[in-house]
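hi! just following up on the protien thing from before. the input was this:
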Amino acid sequence: MALPPAGTLVPIGSGDALELAVLCVKWGTKYSADYVNRLRNMVSRNLPLAHRFLCLTDDSTGLQPGIEVLPFPQTDLEYCWNKLLLFDPLPVDGVGLFFDLDVVITGDLTPLLATRRDDPFIGVVDWYRRDDPQYNASVMRFHLNRHRYVIQSFRRKLAEGRLVKYREWDAYLGSRDKVVYWEGDRRYGGDQEWTSRQVYGPAEIGSHCFPAGTVMSYKKHGRRKLPGGCRVMVFHGAPKPHEVDIPYVTQHWR
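and the predicted 3d structure came back as:
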């Protein structure tokens, strides 16, 4: 599907004017259209820069006007692995700011765009992987159409038999549906581990991140109150925002 003409350009990186696109992925039935609509509303309230909001999805039913739909291509990817499709050619260029659907945006997002403007890819180091750093892929900023190697390498190794798909038991899913891939003795438990290993070496990841404290984990930092300076609270695993009755979540997740 062809997208509308590009909108207003904003200066991001090297003084150039680049279009800004906010992206999300909705696949299957895990999240309703309401999650996409709330995310778009939160972005609209907290991102003063001109931007487009795009949803890569296999079902656009219930998405509110103003959300541009990117139809899912034919793919064998499942669950979180569908996020690798963000690195396929997209009909929009510039800078992409990606959010998982289970985040709560709690403040001005400008710092996520103003920091390290020339970096082609930045994110947040997973809070539980400090000894073996990798990104938590809930929030990422990257140059669109510049990281095709992330998914091209995945497909090539899969076709060559160097990357092998397995299923494991997952307590959150409550079934043996978790998809992992093995490359020799290296296990990739999800898209974020694969992406992390493609874009930077482990020693480099910590140098290409959002400002400390701007993207935080609900489990680790936000169960009681909203920490000062937090702009995005990530609800990885359980619970999800609709299952939490805390004032700051009720205030912002709408």
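The domain at 10-102+109-213 is CATH 3.90.550 (Spore Coat Polysaccharide Biosynthesis Protein SpsA; Chain A).
The longest strand covers residues 135-143.
cheers
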